[in-house]
Amino acid sequence: MSGRTCIECADDIPFTGFISTHQYSTHSIQRGIEWLKFKGIRPLAEVLAGLLIPKLTTIASIEVLAKRAILVPVPLHKRRLLHRGFNQSEDIAHSISAICSIEVKSILTRSTATASQAHLPHELRAQNMHNAFALNISPQEYIELTKTKSIIIILDDVSTTGATLISAAHALPILPDTEVWGAAIARG
User: Fold this and answer.
1) Which of 3, 7, 156, 183 is packed most tightly, with the most Cβ within 10 A?
2) Is residue 7 part of a domain?
3) Domain count, the chain
4) Strands, E, within 35-142: which ranges?
5) Is the pTM of this model over 0.85?
6) In which residue ranges of the chain is pLDDT below 50?
């Protein structure tokens, strides 16, 4: 699924649009994400990034994205990052950056240690993620950043209900002429 947010959904979804590559139920995608995330096979980030790159052209050409976009990996809480030792979304973002020259900026922080979304029923995921993120640069720095980087792509490995990406997007100030996109390797 890839595309712009429809007019009817725009009031509820803080994205210009959303892109992803496959359903999470696709066995090879599920296994690749799980091996990256839980077994620490970090070279898989490059493979997964390679799947997402063609979908980025839904937003704009790679040339335009290299000039006007930033990739914002969904941050892990410091305890989860310490336990895992790396952020898989950050690894995927840096792999995309190495190929497409799109800048990676960690402008969000995980302000709340939330329960794992994978272990929650769908109806509790938005509540679990409520106010989980905060901007980790000043609002003025954000405004200055968006003068040249007017496309923000929030990147996660998996998006099931969209709760994590939506919560992350809500942490960003709403500015005219700035597009905020959600992106994930897998959906559902």
Assistant:
1) 183
2) no
3) 1
4) 69-73, 103-104, 108-110, 133-135
5) yes
6) none
